[in-house]
Write a sequence for this structure.
């Protein structure tokens, strides 16, 4: 069930997708807007390139397995990052760099909410170790087609950190996928990030792409 939900969110083979993130807090008059281009293969190897704002263009995150580094044009050596560290707004590094629920969590079916066409399976995902983004995730998927509906993300102390809604299902990258994710802070009311996915297409991404040498060509 979890693998099916992963494949609905993203292709199993190499792909490229553009992501626009708009984040807003109650005390902000204008939302903060950022854009990224993601290259990924099997949710194990990922490159996240900052497209906007212009001041941050050239910054690149490289994820290999569960190891994450940040490459900056002005710094000769990459900086090691945590997947749980905040990237922007309510979005953690791991939310973009590694969306591998099946590989990072041990699943358990808790219950089924609703009935008939509205039935949703509620899955409890427990982190395999502390290197993953969240200690626990509760994931609601439609029982009929496996589409993710929403998720809750928890800390090691079992505190609810944020929620996510998977919305606006459209044809993207050859399949029906959620193209809009709404992440809300569970601790700070009104702090929200909206992720819009667009221009997903298959890419041939050999092993050499996910290397320091290749990233220098992208900067």
């Amino acid at each position: 069930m979890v693998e099916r939900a992963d494949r609905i969110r993203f292709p199993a083979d190499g792909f490229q997708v553009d992501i626009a993130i708009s984040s807003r807090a109650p005390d902000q008059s204008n939302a903060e807007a950022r854009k990224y281009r993601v290259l990924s293969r099997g949710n194990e190897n990922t490159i996240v390139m900052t497209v906007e704002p212009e001041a941050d263009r050239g910054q690149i995150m490289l994820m290999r397995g569960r190891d994450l580094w940040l490459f900056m044009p002005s710094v000769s050596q990459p900086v090691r990052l945590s997947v749980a560290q905040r990237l922007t707004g309510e979005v953690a590094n791991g939310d973009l760099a590694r969306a591998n629920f099946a590989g990072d969590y041990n699943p358990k079916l808790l219950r089924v909410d609703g009935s008939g066409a509205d039935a949703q399976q509620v899955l409890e995902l427990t982190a395999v170790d502390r290197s993953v983004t969240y200690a626990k995730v509760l994931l609601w998927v439609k029982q009929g087609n496996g589409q993710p509906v929403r998720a809750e993300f928890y800390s090691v102390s079992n505190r609810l950190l944020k929620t996510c809604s998977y919305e606006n299902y459209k044809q993207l990258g050859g399949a029906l996928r959620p193209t809009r994710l709404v992440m809300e802070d569970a601790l700070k009311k009104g702090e929200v990030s909206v992720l819009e996915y667009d221009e997903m297409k298959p890419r041939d991404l050999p092993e050499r792409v996910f290397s320091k040498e290749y990233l220098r060509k992208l900067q």
About this structure: DSSP finds four helices and 15 strands in the chain. The longest strand covers residues 160-172.
